[in-house]
């Protein structure tokens, strides 16, 4: 069975040149409108990012001033504001960790220092602060590892060698001696128990 359908020629009454020009004009209008919108969006996004960075730097500078005045609680609050705008700023994270150490809150200090190390794993100062924070919680082995990484990244820094790593090693030796003394004391008590019974 044969189907019947009308075949219509498009643009029979319109000149081809006029039709092509009209379609070309509409395509360029759409492209420029989209390009303009896209450019405005990118510019606005870039401006927002620049504004966040500027505001973050202001909060960071205010935190530094407060820390120099030994007002560490307020400094940490300012640095938290800066980090809410620029969360991957390793210097702010490291300063926050130092201030938290001064406030005798070593666990949050370790967290801030670990974030600083994650953001920039090639910055020796972050490893130094992480090591000091780990000493604050009594984790001598991890502190030794952190100081060793800092020394590996910056071997000419005398403070790392003479103060941080040397002190950590002496603490590890003292802990080993105390553990040995406790072990001998426990051994003596165990030997005395059967005699007394």
Q: What does this 3D model show about the protein?
A:
The chain has 197 residues and is mostly helical. It has seven helices and no strands. The protein has helices at residues 16-68, 72-85, 90-102, 106-119, 124-136, 140-153, 158-196. It is elongated, with a radius of gyration of 34 Å.
User: Which class of secondary structure composition applies to the elements?
Assistant: mainly alpha
The residue ranges in which pLDDT falls below 50 over 5 or more consecutive positions are none
Can you summarize the main beta sheet? none
- Name the average pLDDT: 85
Percent helix, as a range, is: over 70%
**Number of helical regions:** 7
Structural shape: elongated
Count the beta strands: 0
How much is the radius of gyration in Å?
34 Å
Provide the succession of SSEs: HHHHHHH
End-to-end separation: 114 Å
Q: Strand content of the residues, in percent?
A: under 5%
Show the helix and strand layout.
Blueprint: H1 16-68, H2 72-85, H3 90-102, H4 106-119, H5 124-136, H6 140-153, H7 158-196
Helix pairs in contact: 1-2, 2-3, 3-4, 3-5, 4-5, 5-6, 6-7
Which structural traits does this protein have?
single chain, 197 residues, mainly alpha, 81% helix
């Amino acid at each position: 069975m044969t189907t019947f359908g009308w075949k219509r020629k498009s643009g029979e009454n319109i000149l081809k040149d006029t039709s092509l020009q009209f379609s070309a004009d509409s395509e360029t209008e759409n492209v420029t409108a989209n390009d303009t919108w896209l450019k405005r969006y990118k510019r606005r996004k870039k401006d927002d990012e620049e504004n966040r960075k500027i505001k973050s730097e202001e909060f960071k500078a205010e935190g530094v001033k407060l820390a120099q005045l030994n007002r560490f609680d307020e400094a940490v609050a300012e640095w938290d504001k800066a980090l809410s705008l620029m969360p991957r700023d390793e210097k702010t994270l490291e300063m926050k960790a130092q201030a938290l150490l001064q406030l005798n809150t070593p666990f949050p200090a370790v967290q801030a220092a670990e974030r600083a190390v994650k953001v920039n794993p090639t910055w020796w100062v972050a490893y130094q602060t992480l090591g000091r924070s780990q000493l604050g919680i009594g984790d001598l082995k991890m502190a030794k590892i952190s100081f060793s990484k800092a020394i590996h990244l910056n071997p000419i820094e005398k403070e790392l060698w003479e103060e941080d790593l040397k002190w950590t090693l002496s603490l590890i030796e003292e802990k080993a001696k105390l553990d040995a003394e406790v072990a001998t004391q426990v051994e003596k008590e165990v030997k005395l128990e059967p005699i007394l019974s």
